Amino acid sequence: PRAVPPSGVSPARDEAERLPTVLGGLASQTTPPREVIVVDDGSSDSTAAVAGARGARVLTGEPLPNGWTGKAWALWQGIRAARGEIVVCLDADVDPSSHLLARLGRCFEGRGGLVSVQPYHEMRHWWERGAAFFNLVAVMGIGLAAPGGSRVLERTAFGPCLIAGRAPLLTHLAHRSVRHAVIEDVALARRFAASGEPVACFAGGDLVAFRMYDRPSRLVEGFAKNFATGVATTPWFRLVAIVAWIGASLVAGWGALGGGPVALVVYGAFAVQCFVMLRQLGNFGIVAALVYPVLVVFFVAVFAASLVLLVRGKVRWKGRSIRLRDRSGERDE
């Protein structure tokens, strides 16, 4: 029998400029979704009007309760309203290919649990390449950037594009460890895994893409937010390995300034490694790999800022102040 098409849910806060891409992509699917729900999460722009004009069912987000972050709450509301038993969750900045839902559906039928895809990072401006090492560090610990390896199964997920059953999504999103998490996708995957449900992650390739940040301030703010939480949740052995690799890449870059043959060979080896990994993650190009020390310095600077945020226990994102530690009776401002 033919599989029942999933419901599509997209949380959106001030995403009027981006929504046409994801909604247009959903409208052109070879396997159309049962419905498309856009949750307007307190937008100050024309997000709701744009979504409605594109044929989506628009939900006006309810006030944010204590103990929830904005995206988790918006997702929960959209999934609760979905009519289908299977739900595909897509961020507003995602650009899906016409066969995304068909491929996701087949994968979910075979695996169950939680299936997610890391979108291919598409960039239009030179400054967007500053995200290179943030992308690498985010995925190298779980092996997605390894040469020749495009798939890995682990206790993690990529929130921009995922599919799961409606009932388990509602249950796990409402769990204390997920509903207050800044990086809700990783927390969600851990809940699925803790419940004995399979978790699968894939690299997007030509299946789905996104443009992460449309201006430099959002790039810095977004990665500082994510890494402030990521440092606290990364296993120590992975953190040590990542720090060692970052340190070695900086030493190699500094050593190349001397122009010695050995130093240049080491520098070239790091550049090749960066190029091989980055080409799987986005259109960073060979120039980004060749000037990788500059990107490492930028990464370290933003990473240092994220440590300050971690100590403060609070980050800001899209006009909201988000606490990094769950405290009884407190909510996002």
Account of the protein in words:
The protein is α/β, with parallel strands linked by helices and 333 residues long. It contains 13 helices and 13 strands. 48% of the residues lie in helices and 16% in strands. The protein has an eight-stranded mixed beta sheet with strand order 3-2-1-4-9-6-10-8, sandwiched between helices. Strands 5-11-7 form a three-stranded mixed beta sheet. Strands 12-13 form a two-stranded antiparallel sheet. Helix 3 (70-81) runs antiparallel to helix 6 (166-173), helix 9 (216-233) packs across helix 13 and helix 10 packs antiparallel against helix 13. The protein is globular.
Give me the secondary-structure topology.
Elements: E1 7-12, H1 19-27, E2 35-40, H2 47-53, E3 57-60, H3 70-81, E4 86-90, E5 94-96, H4 100-111, E6 114-118, E7 120-121, H5 132-140, E8 151-152, E9 161-165, H6 166-173, H7 176-179, H8 184-194, E10 199-203, E11 208-210, H9 216-233, H10 236-256, H11 261-281, H12 285-290, H13 292-312, E12 314-317, E13 320-323
Parallel strand pairs: 1-2, 1-4, 2-3, 6-10, 7-11
Antiparallel strand pairs: 4-9, 5-11, 6-9, 8-10, 12-13
Features:
333 residues, alpha/beta, eight-stranded mixed sheet, three-stranded mixed sheet, 13 strands, 16% strand, globular, disordered C terminus
State the share of residues found in helices, binned by percent: 40-55%
Number of strands: 13
Specify the structural class: alpha/beta
Number of helices: 13
Spatial strand arrangement across the major sheet: 3-2-1-4-9-6-10-8
